[in-house]
Amino acid sequence: MSRYRLTIDTGGTFSDLVLHDGATGALRVLKVPSTPDDPSRAVREGIEMLAADGVDPAQIGFFFHGTTVATNALLMERGARVGLAVTEGFRGIAEAMEQSRPFGRTIFDLGFTKPPLLAPESRTAEIGERVGARGQVLRELDLASIDAAIARFEAEQVEAVAICFLFSFMNGDHEQVVRDRLRAAHPEWWVSASSDLLPQIREYFRLSTTVINAYVSPVLGRYVNQLERILDEHGVAPGRRFTMQSNGGSTPFGSTSKTAVGTILSGPAGGVTASIALAAAAGDESIITFDMGGTSCDVALIQGGVPAMTTHGKVAGRDVALPMLDINTVSAGGGTLATVDAHGALHLGPESAGAVPGPVCYGRGGTIPSVTDADVVLGYLNPVALLGGALAIDAAAAERSIRERVAEPLGVDLWRAATGIVRVVNVTMAEAIKAISTNRGHDVRGFTLVPFGGAGPVHACQIAVDLGIRTVLVPRTPGVFSAQGLMLSTVKHDHVRSRLEPLLGLAEADVNARFQALLAEADAGLADDGFVPADRQLRPLLELRYAGQGYELAVPVTLPLGPGDLDRCRERFDDLHARQHGHAAPDQPVEVVNYRVEAIGLVPPVTVPDPAPATEPVESALAGHRPVLFPSLGDRPVDVPVYERARLLPGHAFAGPAIVEQYDATTVVCPEQDVTVDARGNLVVTLREVPA
Amino acid sequence: MSERLDAITVEVVNQSVAGIVQEMQNALFATGYSTVIRESHDASGAIMTADGRVIAQHTVLPIHLGAFPACVEGLLRRYSLDEMAPGDAFVVNHPYLGGSPHASDMAIITPIFVDGTIFGFAGSMAHKPDIGGLAPGSNSGASRELFHDGLMVPPVRFWAAGVLIREVEAIIEANTRTPELVVGDLRGQVGATFLAADRVQRLCARLGRATVLAAAERLFDVTAERIRSVIRSWPDGEYAGEATLHNDGVEDGRPVHARVRVRIEGDRLHADFSESSDQTAGPYNIRPDLVRAVTYYVLKCLAGPDLPSNHGLAMVVDTVFRDGSVLSPRSPAPVNTYIAMALVTTEALFDALANAVPGARIAHSSHGGALVTGTLSHFLPGRGAPLVMYEILAGAMGARPNSDGVSATSVHVRNAAITSIEILETEFPVEVVRFDLAADSGGPGRWRGGLGLVREYRALGRSRRVARGGRELTPPPGRDGGLPGRSSRVVLNPRTDRERPVTARDGNVELEAGDVIRYELGGGGGFGDPLARPAAEVLADVHEGYVTPGAARADYAVVVVADGLAWRIDEAATAALRARPG
Predict the structure, then answer these.
(1) Is there a single domain that holds both residue B79 and residue B155?
(2) How close, in Å, is residue B30 to chain A by CA atoms?
């Protein structure tokens, strides 16, 4: 009954559909214009187009969805009317935020303001209660204050309520009572308690995350209900419907709307998931993903098949403290504009040509040169048309704009100006890569770069050469790679408890006991999602720090711990700290901060058949030659072979410099690199060994 | 390999050095041991030329822009470049022999060797929870000479050829009440500079040392030129500004003035600070290098927040100081509370420039900081040295010409983060009993000043509060008819019969278990006539609890009455009140 697996990834311009046919292994790709006012319309349309094309929706056994509904609700401040319950006397937590201004330009901005409170003071109720640092009750819960809070929320006509009390991560009883009373009084209120969502130390971040959750959850909840109806109407199999999360996993529709805040930074997660699968299949588990689109570039590091995670992100100045993929975003994309200021300094971005007017070479009214225009002038992109001929390119216009707006003001020739634009944007992206790799103690040269997104493969090979990265792995369909990743994602929930204590004072049995409840909770969660025991995986982690430090590192553990295991844990922590931060302090006491369990529900893997091996020589894939400028070959273009990606098959090999064109992307191979096509049809671009 | 210097190469270098200082910053925060670094983020990193000009600094703490060059200058007075070797690192915290703002800020300066000679320096500066001196936390208001401020370290070698000099570490370790934290933080600081040195070496290997240095010079020129073009648009003339600190650290109410005459002449800015008060007996003095940094901060705010933080800022400003004044004290005048004058001088500069530059017309802010909170140290039974809890509570921003001030925020040249209550209570014998905004603390005006915050602590054991004091007696003035914000206040045992105010003059305050100390941070000044604030906005402020109905009536002439759980305007009464002249 489940021949197909469908993913729909809602983007700003297009909603990408990828359908996997289990019977044939074939992938079908479809792009439907997005419908921002009601994103479910594009979903309905996509399913109907597939149905019209002979796909029986009832045969869709798994449905994966990447949605920006919660993100947009937050960005556009169109979330629910939220009330907030805090410990009496502590309204300042929400107002003060971190108290410091964000680093960078804001410090010098005299007009700076904090983002408006999602739950303003007028909708904030103070509850008589107090829990202390060891979880002890310092002040009993004052039930009358709950009634007063309900009256206030009623008067303020709230739709949702966030609850965040001090030290609720040590003892959540008070929060739970308030939560239950609010729900009993008003079942229509959407209530989120911080001890349910994020039982973790640091009250402001916990509060901010809980408030955002309450703010976006009703909106995402309504949307998911609507999707359920659409899917039901079309007979899509119930139950196996998932939403992509910022932590790189997915979650069933049923729990999606309980933790909507978990989807807020999920945009780039699909690409990371797809990269992990791609790399695993290629037997290479240390990779850096490189997703370059029109306005920004997202990079992430994956080591041993495990993506780097972080526990803090910011959206529009607001703090989200859930575990999420550690994705570094810089404003550098194909549309990034190049300008020269009155003082003769060249600037790339942060402004972007965007979809409208787009780069000058698209001929839609753009006049300021962009990175894409430089790519056209240098011969990296086809100077006649892109997207298989669907997008005409005006190379002359690109050339004119770079000449007039960059070359002449700088007093350099056209070629120098165009290579300069690419050079600067590449440095910005290379710095973004260093920030997640060398800056954290990884030797970037040992990683494989996986480029995708519209512009990724155009720039990735040069950046790899600059950084000394030996291998670039270009997937078969870089343009829809992120959507493809969604269907490969496993279900993932994080369960965490903060409990600050010295590691030295703990016995293995204590740690086992502390993990006990978490493991049970994690396992039950997966069971609720419908996973059979064989498909449930639990990964316990101890988050440790040197006594006195402010930030933790996660050390995986195998339970139950036996004698000596905590000592080994400690050694692993020292090693990790040395690698990540450049020094360790084995003589310094270590503290446990959090107990964490990652709960993973395994979704059956999809298999895509490998392309047939090449029978013709590589010359059969040669489409022609065109002049391309590579700085390492001089300051003028040279003739370079252009290959057609569709005709490059496993076993083919050729040397750079070369250009590889396909419908959704162009790969630019540098003179220092060689290319082979692997058994799965990926381009493997390697740095040629230079005899010393 | 070297390449031609053009705008492209310059921008490549610019992006690269920005990445390097960002990396230093991440390393400092991630590895900090003390709450000062890891929670308050009081640390920064820079790379400099061999003569100490800043090539790049991550903009966390604007004040350090002046401190780094002065540290290198001090280092070079003591050591010649050929006395230095790869893997060396120097430590300095001496405000006169180096450039540290005060003893608490210890700097690590590491020479960067490229092709066997010194390319420049990597520096990191971070606030230490304690470096000795009269009182825990080192910054005692009772300090009367530099030697009261704590251990003074002139620029000395701390690491030699990649190896820690244990003797120097031992001296530092023996002179602090928090040896583990200080030694741990220094270790992280050295690590951050070595990291930066390595990255600069790689950059030079790629582009050529001469190219990188030439690009740095060009970056300075471009920054300077961008500021000059803005200054040219300001009307020539001389503009005076003044702001005042309420005491000299010895006598409450004896004012200390920062006075500046700013002369704009074509594309240059001269700032003459010589009319400022004489140096103080107490620790409010500030060294000229830091006053220059304050001037760069003000310039960057007005000329473009996007300007890079490099030496170019220094190229367009001339400063004049009077020896023996509070802004150019003679050694050994104590300086531990320099930040108070840094902030007051910031206001004086805005005050002067407000006459020439519309963007400078903002009301004064409430500066907050440890000036108000002081340092709480906790004495634990069976532990020799007390636990030092150094916290920085922010003030609030003054109102701007078209927006309200910002509540509970670090302002101007300081940018400390608040410490989590849950972290405090887990690590110190203290209980926070209240954390709120102070209603009516924002200066009334067409635009209201930001509100200060209120935090109350209950001591769970014997503790000592070490006071400094700053601007509690001088409320932050408003501008263009706006009224002043409320002053900061410190109260012992509020709402009890043992309640009493505490001022800087009280010096150390001993707390017994159960005593409560309340910090009420001041609000920012207002902007414009309060009667011009639309009644609906006043009502909204009452609804949010920012303004009480009494203040709405008294300050804004708006009559707000309760309406169930909500509020409404009494239109008739308001109209009558607002119509009344004066």
Answers:
(1) yes
(2) 6
Determine the Cα–Cα distance for residues B73 and A227; give it in Å rounded to an integer.
Answer: 66
Residue B403: list chain A partners with CB under 8 A.
111, 113
Identify which of A434, A439, A585 has the shortest CB distance to residue B184: A585
> What pLDDT is stored for residue B25 in this prediction?
83
Picking from B157, B192, B225, the residue at the C-terminal end of a domain is: B225
Question: For the segment A400-431, what is each residue's pLDDT rounded down to a tens digit?
Answer: 999 999 999 999 999 999 999 999 999 889 98
Question: Which CATH code for domain A74-220?
Answer: 3.40.1360
Is residue B446 located within the same domain as residue B538?
A: no
Query: With an 8 Å Cβ cutoff, are B415 and A431 in contact?
Result: no
H-helix or E-strand spanning residue B553: helix B549-556
User: Touching check for A576 and chain B: CB below 8 Å?
Assistant: no
Q: Is residue B328 part of a domain?
A: no
CA of B377 vs chain A CAs: smallest distance (Å): 16
Residue A348: closest CA among chain B residues belongs to which residue? B11
State whether A91 and B301 contact (CB < 8 Å): no
Taking the CA of residue A121 and the nearest CA in chain B, the distance in Å comes to: 5
Are B72 and B213 contained in the same domain? yes
Residues B383, B495 within the same domain: yes
Q: Pick left, alpha or beta for residue A308 (phi over 0 → left; psi -120 to 50 → alpha; otherwise beta).
A: beta
Q: Does A101 touch chain B (CB under 8 A)?
A: yes
Nearest-by-CA chain A residue for B403? A111
Reduce the secondary structure of B415-471 to three states and give it as a string. CCCCCCHHHHHHHCCEEEEEEEECCCCCCCCCECCCCCEEEEEEECCCEEEECCCCC
For residue A589, the SS3 value is coil
CB B66 within 8 A of CB B293: yes
- HSE-CB at A37 with a 13 A cutoff on CA atoms is 0
Q: With an 8 Å Cβ cutoff, are B180 and A588 in contact?
A: yes
CATH code 3.40.1360 region(s) in chain A: 74-220
| First vs last C-alpha separation in chain B | 75
Question: Could you tell me which chain A residue has the CA closest to the CA of B359?
Answer: A110
pLDDT of residue B504: 64
At B265-312, the pLDDT tens digits run 999 999 999 999 999 998 999 999 999 999 999 999 999 888 888 999
Residues A3, A26: contact at Cβ < 8 Å? no
The per-residue pLDDT for range A580-599, each reduced to its tens digit, is 665 677 777 898 988 999 99
Spatial separation of the C-alpha atoms in residues A140 and A132, rounded to whole Å:
11
CATH value of A491-601 in 1.20.120, 2.40.50, 3.30.1490, 3.40.1440 = 3.30.1490
User: Does A343 contact B at CB distance below 8 Å?
Assistant: yes
Of B23, B34, B422, the CB nearest to A202: B422
Given an 8 Å threshold on Cβ–Cβ distance, is B38 in contact with A549? yes
Where in the sequence is the domain holding B146, given as residue range(s)? 7-225
| Among B residues 480-509, those touching chain A with beta carbons less than 8 Å apart | none
pLDDT in tens, B192-244: 999 899 989 989 998 899 999 999 999 999 999 999 999 999 999 999 999 98
Residue B372 lies in a domain: yes
What's the number of domains chain B is made of? 3
- In this structure, the answer to whether residues B506 and B567 fall within a common structural domain is no
Question: Pick from B225, B254, B271: which residue ends a domain?
Answer: B225
Please indicate, yes or no, whether residues B161 and B24 belong to a single structural domain of this protein: yes
B172 with B211, same domain?
A: yes
Residue A315 has pLDDT above 90, yes or no: no
Evaluate whether B310 touches B219 at the Cβ level (below 8 Å): yes
B268 located within any domain:
no
Do B502 and B572 fall into the same domain?
Answer: no
Report yes or no on B405 lying in a domain: yes
Q: What is the CATH number of domain A1-66?
A: 3.30.420.40
Distance from CA of B281 to the nearest CA of A (A): 31
Q: Which residue of A has its CA nearest to B129?
A: A548
Report whether A115 contacts A319 (CB < 8 A): no
Q: Which of A106, A113, A551 sits opposite B38 (nearest CB)?
A: A551
Nearest CB among A100, A107, A435 relative to B59 is that of: A107
- Across residues A497-511, what is the average pLDDT? 87
Q: Are B399 and B482 in contact (CB under 8 A)?
A: yes
